[in-house]
Amino acid sequence: GAEAMKINQNTVLQGQRVTLVPYASAHVPRYHKWMQSEELQRLTASEPLSLEQEYEMQRSWRDDADKCTFIVLDTERWSGQACADEDCMVGDVNLFLTDTEDPTLGEIEIMIAEPSYRGRGFGKEATLMMMSYGVRNLGITTFEAKIGQENEASICMFKKLHFKEVAVNSVFQEVTLRLDVSDQERRWLLEQTDHVEEKGYVELKLPAGVLET
């Protein structure tokens, strides 16, 4: 599956509330600003990085075959094209292939970094879109989510998406939730995301008029 993750490099998934685009260097300054927040550091169990480190991280993620990252944009603001990606960014969603023995297992992470977008279904749609992408394009049949015990909103959301709690790690104060994608779950997932349009990232960004020449 070394090639598997590369395939999202120019994929755009446009949903109703959210649009997922590959994490590009243009997104780094805004992402870096988000990650200065102590609350987000706590929720994502991450250390604050310098801007330079954040650019390095973005490059390594882009080249990492075991990780698929999309930046979550506000569809309404973005599709008007009046606003640049970085002005429409609301969070990110990641899929990690953590188990070398089992390439069908994906660990999923969602972060809605902009507080005004939380609790409005943005995280839910982004997660469903990423799961559907993982099932269709990456051959994922089992999803896991590891979430801090105090992050009740996130735990609750994954349970609504049919995940079951399978483990609690009291040392890391973390809950593991899992979803096995049966045929029935697969059908449900594809139904939930059948409104999503897949587009190419590069062509969307060409200024008007370039194509005619």
Write a short abstract of this structure.
The chain is an alpha+beta fold. It has helices at 28-34, 38-44, 51-63, 75-79, 85-88, 122-138, 152-160, 183-192, 201-205; strands spanning 11-14, 18-22, 67-74, 89-96, 105-112, 142-148, 164-169, 174-180, 197-200. The protein is built from 9 helices and 9 strands.
Number of strands: 9
Number of helices: 9
Tell me the structural class.
alpha+beta
The profile of the biggest β sheet is: 9 strands, mixed
Poorly predicted sequence stretches spanning 5 or more consecutive residues: 203-213
Rg over C-alpha atoms, rounded to the nearest angstrom:
17 Å
Summarize the amount of helix as a percent range.
Answer: 25-40%
Placed side by side, the strands forming the largest sheet appear as 7-8-6-5-4-3-2-1-9
**What is the H-and-E element order?**
EEHHHEHHEEHEHEEHEH
Oligomer: single chain
Distance between the termini: 39 Å
Mean pLDDT: 88
The general outline is globular
Strand content is 25-35%
Report on this structure.
The protein is α+β, with helices and mostly antiparallel strands. It has 9 helices and 9 strands. The chain has a 9-stranded mixed beta sheet, with helices on both faces. β4 (89-96) and β5 (105-112) form a beta hairpin. It is globular and about 40 Å long. The protein starts with 10 loop residues before the first strand and ends in an 8-residue tail after the last helix.
Write the SSE topology.
Layout: E1 11-14, E2 18-22, H1 28-34, H2 38-44, H3 51-63, E3 67-74, H4 75-79, H5 85-88, E4 89-96, E5 105-112, H6 122-138, E6 142-148, H7 152-160, E7 164-169, E8 174-180, H8 183-192, E9 197-200, H9 201-205
Parallel strand pairs: 5-6
Antiparallel strand pairs: 1-2, 1-9, 2-3, 3-4, 4-5, 6-8, 7-8
Helix pairs in contact: 1-3, 6-8
